[in-house]
Each structure stands twice: as C-alpha cells, then as structure tokens.
C-alpha cells in the first residue's frame, strides 16, 4: 500500500462532505439494483448505507497526483530501520508461541510475516481512521479511472460486513479502503482473512493471531515455498531493458536469463524461475537483482519491487535482532553535558 505523510492524511480527513445527491445518480441507482439482485441485499439497506457515506474530496486529489516513486536509497530507510526491527523482534518474543504456531501451520517464515505487518502498519500502530464506506464510495463513484475496481471492492465490503455480522459503519481503515494490521482490501479480506482463535470473527484490527494468520495464509495461497530463495545481486552482460519491462512475472528460469545476459555473482539454483529487477542503490548507481519465487509472492501482496526488497531485508534484520536479543537491551541514554 502507498504511504502518505501524516500531514496529508490529516488534511484528507478534514475534507468530508455528505453527498445527498449520490443516490439519485443513475449509475449509483444501477449499482444498488444490480448489487441487491446479485448478492441478496435489500435495496433499502444499500440505499441507506450510501446515503450515510461521506464523500472525502481530497482523496480524489491524492489519486490524481502523479506517482513519484523514490529510488531505493531513499525508500529503504522508511521501512528497514531500528524502530521496525526492534518492534518486530519484541513482538516475536512477546508472542513467540503464537508466531511459531502460525508459521508452522502455513509453512511461512515467521520473520517475513512480521516484516509485512511492520511495513504495513508498524504492528497495528497505524491502521487508518477513515470509515471504509466513505473511502470506497468516494472513489467508486467519483473517480472514473478506478470506478470498476472500487465498485467491486465496495460490494466485497458490504459482503464482508454481512459475513462478520457487524455494522458496516464500524469498519475503519486507510484512505483507499485497506484494513487492519495487514491492510487488506475487502476482496483480500474475504479470500484470505483467518479466524485463528475460532471466535467467529476475522479480527485483523485487534487480534494478533488473526492478523498473523491472515498474512501467512495470503502468502501460502500465492505459492510461498518454505526455506525458498528470495533474491540475489547479479551483473548484466546485455541491455537489461527488455527483461526489466516485465519485472513482475516469472517467465524464465535462471538458466534462460543467463542466456539473455544475466551474470550471477554467487552460486544459485539455475533451474528455478526468476525475474530481473533493478534498484538505484546509490544516487546515479543502479544494481541488478534476480528475484525468485518468494520474492514474486511478496509482489502479489504489494506490486512493488521496492516493497518486496524492503520486506525481505526487514525480515532478515528482525530475525537477527530476535536471535541477538536486541529487543531485551535497554535503550542507551545520551550522556549528560557537563
């Protein structure tokens, strides 16, 4: 999920207006009729829900801003830092039995599960304060470029509220409708959210077990390989542009990529599928890498090579900090000036 500055989020949350004309629009009326007929809702329920929704106009402004992705050497520090590392190690130690049980059931690395929760919401510290119905309806009916996707997510949201037997107005999340510690969109919630403790709810907002198991289930269902390779640095003996144009798919094995000019630096399994990607590791300097199956799986969670690399680096650091006991060490205080 894309991150906004706290100042920008605060600005968005202040621009909320009731859209009394929303339900009178023909496209909204058609949405209500078709959704009610297809999924067994009453038209009155959907009408009431959309009447209550507030249009947050600055969300549209944010979506219209051109994407200005930062290079890796700037991006990295926001995710792979002492705070997230130590918080991950501390969470692991305080919930060791739970973390290990989830890891064993889903055959997913405990450090990677924790790294995703750390990258997304710093272990539940920042899950979003927007009503989901407001965020999704704002985009679904006021942003034509993404209308189809967000109308589907709005429907998935109403379905999950019904499944969870909760008031739709009680659900909160990000400005784009992502929810809970894992920041699942409604469709992902309905497909992958888990009820770890069997209490009848998939509480990814407040229940660490449900949140961890949901992330682990997502990765497992997308093909995570236990103890599998992640990524490695390589050199290039040919123009990398054709391969970089398709950096989110595993079309070639390492052997086939070698034939196309990829030169591995270290010994790797050349029979496994891989994808080439590049990171600007220093200003003006680009390093190339091969991402393997588990790297690819994380790009299913968030379609960004920056994100996947950050998660895997953060996971390594959390693992090391946990093993060293960094989270048990007192925070060094600054020496007093005489």
Explain how this protein is built:
This protein has 338 residues and is an alpha+beta fold. It has a domain at 1-69 and 132-166: Orthogonal Bundle (Helicase, Ruva Protein, domain 3). Helices cover 51% and strands 11% of the residues. The chain has 16 helices and 9 strands. It has helices at 6-14, 26-39, 43-52, 57-64, 72-79, 82-94, 96-106, 110-121, 132-142, 147-163, 186-192, 208-221, 241-244, 254-259, 293-301, 305-324; strands spanning 17-18, 54-55, 130-131, 172-173, 231-236, 252-253, 262-264, 273-282, 285-291. The strands form 3 sheets. The chain has a 5-stranded antiparallel beta sheet with strand order 6-8-9-5-7. Strands 1-2 form a two-stranded antiparallel sheet. It has a two-stranded antiparallel sheet with strand order 3-4. α5 (72-79) packs across α16, α6 (82-94) packs across α8 (110-121) and α7 (96-106) runs parallel beside α12. The chain is globular. The N and C termini lie far apart (47 Å).
Give the topology, please.
Blueprint: H1 6-14, E1 17-18, H2 26-39, H3 43-52, E2 54-55, H4 57-64, H5 72-79, H6 82-94, H7 96-106, H8 110-121, E3 130-131, H9 132-142, H10 147-163, E4 172-173, H11 186-192, H12 208-221, E5 231-236, H13 241-244, E6 252-253, H14 254-259, E7 262-264, E8 273-282, E9 285-291, H15 293-301, H16 305-324
Antiparallel strand pairs: 1-2, 3-4, 5-7, 5-9, 6-8, 8-9
**Subunit organisation of the chains:** single chain
| Low-pLDDT segments, ≥5 res | 1-18, 334-338
What series of H and E elements makes up the topology?
A: HEHHEHHHHHEHHEHHEHEHEEEHH
CATH class of the domain at 1-69 and 132-166: Mainly Alpha
Number of helices: 16
What fraction, in percent, of the residue positions are helical? 40-55%
Calculate Rg over CA atoms. 22 Å
CATH topology of the domain at 1-69 and 132-166: Helicase, Ruva Protein, domain 3
- Total strand segments: 9
Distance between the termini: 47 Å
Instruction: Indicate the mean pLDDT.
Output: 91
Largest sheet: 5 strands, antiparallel
> From the 3D coordinates, which CATH architecture of the domain at 1-69 and 132-166 would you assign?
Orthogonal Bundle
């Amino acid at each position: 999920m894309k991150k906004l500055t706290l100042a920008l989020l605060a600005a968005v949350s202040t621009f909320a207006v009731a859209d009394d004309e929303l339900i009178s629009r023909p496209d909204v009326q058609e949405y209500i009729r078709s959704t009610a007929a297809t999924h067994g809702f009453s038209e009155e329920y959907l009408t009431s829900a959309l009447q209550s929704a507030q249009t947050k106009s600055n969300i549209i402004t944010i979506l219209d801003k051109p994407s200005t992705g930062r290079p890796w050497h700037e991006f990295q520090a926001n995710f792979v830092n002492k705070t997230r590392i130590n918080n991950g190690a501390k969470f692991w130690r305080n919930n060791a039995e739970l973390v290990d049980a989830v890891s064993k059931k889903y055959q997913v690395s405990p450090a990677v599960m924790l790294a995703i929760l750390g990258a997304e919401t710093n272990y539940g510290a920042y899950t979003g304060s927007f009503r989901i119905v407001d965020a999704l309806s704002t985009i679904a009916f006021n942003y034509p470029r993404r209308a189809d996707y967000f109308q589907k997510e709005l429907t998935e949201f109403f379905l999950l509220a019904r499944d969870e037997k909760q008031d739709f107005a009680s659900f909160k999340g990000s400005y784009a409708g992502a929810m809970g510690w894992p920041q699942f969109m409604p469709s992902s919630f309905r497909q992958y959210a888990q009820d770890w403790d069997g209490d009848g709810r998939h509480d990814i907002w407040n229940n660490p077990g449900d949140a961890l198991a949901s992330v682990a289930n997502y990765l497992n269902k997308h093909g995570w390989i236990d103890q599998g390779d992640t990524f490695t640095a390589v050199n290039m003996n040919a123009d990398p542009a054709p391969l970089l144009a398709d950096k989110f798919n595993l079309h070639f094995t390492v052997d086939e990529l070698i034939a196309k000019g990829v030169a591995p630096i270290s010994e790797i399994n050349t029979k496994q599928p891989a994808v080439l990607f590049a990171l600007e590791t220093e200003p003006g300097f680009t390093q190339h890498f091969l991402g393997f199956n588990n790297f690819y799986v994380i790009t299913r969670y968030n379609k960004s090579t920056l994100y996947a690399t950050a998660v895997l680096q953060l996971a390594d650091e959390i693992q090391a900090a946990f093993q060293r006991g960094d989270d048990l060490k007192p925070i060094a205080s600054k020496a007093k000036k005489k």
